[in-house]
Amino acid sequence: MVPSGGKKVKRGILQRLDAGEVVIGDGGFVFALEKRGYVKAGPWTPEAAVEHPEAGASIVGVNCHFDPTISLKTVKLMKEGLEAARLKAHLMAQPLAYHTPDCGKQGFIDLPEFPFGLEPRVATRWDIQKYAREAYNLGVRYIGGCCGFEPYHIRAIAEELAPQRGFLPDASEKHGSWGSGLNMHTKPWVRARARKEYWESLSLASGRPYCPSMSRPDAWGVTKGTAELMQQKEATTDQQLKELFQKQKFKSS
């Protein structure tokens, strides 16, 4: 937004990126709406934004299906491809807010926890601040998130990049940077956590002693063009579901 005659005028993404602005995007609305009861899980359509620069794309990047680490590795490869081809394009990244080091080629949809058991994999605000900084250092200027991202994650991006953007988000009025709000806590060991170094180096525990750190992705061997992957207009029948349940038992055994 830029002032013009006392009024704010909306600018397009390309205008903002061309002007050198760091744009923060939030594509995690589908999962967030489902959690709040506004949409029903089923016929979701996660966006994918991997474009071919030779086709004339102005913004190149990745969206959804993989975590920040994997997504940024992919963007790095794309950047190298652009440079090798002597092409220029803005870079964007909107990864999941879930850690998915164990997922297969199709991403988190192959994980047995998808989509209703993913909460133990949620990235912390500090994970997302690290992602935002790494993305910026890589040259990405459209930095956002997809499924699993919550408002505090987007705030983390905005706070991490406040020096580059020139301002803090409104949500920071009630949030101390790097736990600084803990300096008034009644317990001294909690007050000692009011610093960046503590949260950056913390090794997190899941609190689930009988759960594995990784899952085994479902690998049914289906690929593009397989009948099972064809999108139906009508609802799945009970018989079709029974066949899938039987196949799941067979594949999991």
How would you describe what is shown here?
The chain starts with a strand and ends with a helix. It is globular. α4 crosses α5 (about 150-160). The strands form 2 sheets. Strands 3-6-5-4 form a 4-stranded parallel sheet. It has a two-stranded antiparallel ribbon with strand order 1-2. The relative contact order is 0.12. α3 (about 70-85) links the parallel β4 and β5 (about 90-95). It is an alpha/beta fold and about 250 residues long. Helices cover about 35% and strands about 10% of the residues. The chain has 2 domains: about 10-175, no CATH class; about 180-205, no CATH class. The chain contains 9 helices and 6 strands, in the order ββαβαβαβαβααααα. Homotetramer. Involved in the regulation of homocysteine metabolism. One of its GO terms (biological process) is methylation.
Q: What's the short version?
A:
With 253 residues, this protein is α/β, with parallel strands linked by helices. It has two domains: 12-175, no CATH class; 179-206, no CATH class.
